[in-house]
Amino acid sequence: MATPPVSKLGRVAASPLALLFLLPALLLLGALVVYPIGYTLVRSLFDASGGRFVGLGNYIDMFTSSATRTAMKNNLIWVVVAPTVVTAVGLVFAVLTERIRWAAAFKFVVFMPMAISFLAAGVIFRLVYEQDPDRGVANAVITSVHDAFGSAAAYPGARPRGNDVLAAQGKGYVSTRSYGPGDVAELGLVGVPPQSLPATAANAVAPTAASGGLAGIVWLDFSPGGAGAPGRIDAAEKGLSGVSVQALQGSKVIASAKTGNDGRFQVSGIDGPVRLRLAESNFKEPFGGVTWLGSALITPAIIASYVWIWAGFAMVLIAAGLAAIPRDALEAARVDGATEWQVFRRVTVPLLAPVLVVVFVTLVINVLKVFDLVLIIAPGSVQDDANVLALQMWRVSFGGGRDQGLGSALGIFLFLLVLPAMLFNIRRFRQEQR
Predict the structure, then answer these.
(1) What is the distance between the alpha carbons of residues 369 and 415, in angstroms, rounded to a whole number?
(2) Where would you tag: which of 47, 101, 112, 395 has the fewest CB atoms within 10 A of its CB?
(3) Cα 295 to chain center, whole Å?
(4) What distances in angstroms separate CA 393 from CA 116, 304, 377, 397, 407, one per listed residue?
């Protein structure tokens, strides 16, 4: 049976009915989207007080400000690095979920950070990046690995007591007098907490002269309670073990020795006067890890936290795309002799290209608006170095600048940056629906 034609009157009658159903959504859209955009555009043309029209003055100030240029540079780094890394990591995770036994548990663990707010994630990573290895997880791991492959200094911060026996030379110390064969050198140091001495440390014992060699001792010239005399080995004072002692003739090292548990050492093979040097390696500060929250690494550190949060999002979307790939195409490539890497590169990735593009563009939109992580993770002293456009907009409007005209101009600029990516995504969605 043929469908009766719809009269022009019917179409006209249907139009008001459609508008009636759309009216609540249109009102909500106008109140929450259209009006704020329009008001922000108008407000950007006025000064900080909102009472004087300045035209494009705020936009000129925005592009001539060093803070805004830094924010633009950082936003460019975010746009180039963060979506690329998140998409790549999500792709790797999605492929792994098809090849491991506990795929569901793996997906749960990777996706779980998405359930955490950016504020909470920022607090977590602020603690992770703490400089003190006793508090910051990142530096705790790095210092543990470093100390496993390299020895730490025995006595960082140790120094002479000021008895004119030792003088500073670089970060080490050298004797102020020369010693010859048969002499005895007593080199006292302070600045070492008694509780930090090795468990094997023994009481210091005055060395005896050795024929044909030079004897000496390095000890902690400090008695608990302040007893004892400076420059003299007193009862209960401990020797400093493992100290590297070098014998110098001029600037040349002709012999060396290490102190024992009681701090004594003996230098052999000298035939003339020498000066004794306590090497820098005895006193250098221990490796304290990486300054994650410093100006040089603050932006990469924040991007790493962003990857941790959003990798699960990319993994889930890409895994859904993987599930829709025809298995016949993969099997045909394998039958033709392709390796797994060739199958992945020449079959899987091209078939996943539409999904990867959607994930990448969505992440670009997201990183252009990044705000919470930068505000929470970056300390105040380096916030200028980590600044992004959304944070700069907040800082000039509400964070002390009190200039909502300039803040509105930044908001419009950020909106114009996001708009092309949004239109691209909308266009792709419409093409997929056809």
Answers:
(1) 9
(2) 101
(3) 10
(4) 25, 23, 18, 6, 5
Measured CA to CA, the distance from residue 332 to residue 74 in angstroms comes to: 45
Q: Which of 277, 323, 302, 265 is nearest to 390 (CA)?
A: 302
Which residue matches tokens 């390696």?
281
What distance in Å separates the CA atoms of residue 388 and residue 383, rounded to the nearest whole number?
Answer: 9
372 touches 122 (CB < 8 A): yes
The Cα–Cα gap between 120 and 373 comes to: 9
**Both tokens of residue 20?**
């009636």
Strands (E), 60-111: none
What phi, psi does 255 have (nearest 5°)?
-165, 160
> How far is Cα 414 from Cα 427, in angstroms, rounded to an integer?
21
Return the structure tokens found at 266. Answer: 């003996």
Residue 169 has what DSSP assignment? E
Q: Which of 139-153, 308-322, 333-347 has the lowest mean pLDDT?
A: 139-153
- Render pLDDT for 281-294 as a digit per residue (tens, 0 to 9): 888 777 778 999 99
Sheet holding 213-220, edge to edge: 159-160, 184-190, 213-220, 264-268
Contact 48, 404 (CB under 8 A): yes
Burial degree of 430 (CB within 10 A; 0-12, 13-18, 19+): exposed
Residue 163 CA to chain centroid, in angstroms? 45
Cα→Cα distances 412→41, 380, 393, Å: 7, 26, 10
Which is nearest to 319 in space by CA: 157, 128, 100?
A: 100
Residue 103, helix vs strand vs coil: helix
C-beta of residue 217 within 8 angstroms of C-beta of residue 186 = yes
Q: Which two tokens stand for residue 14?
A: 């249907």
Taking only the tens place, the pLDDT of each residue in 191-237 is: 888 888 888 888 888 888 777 788 899 988 887 766 667 878 888 88
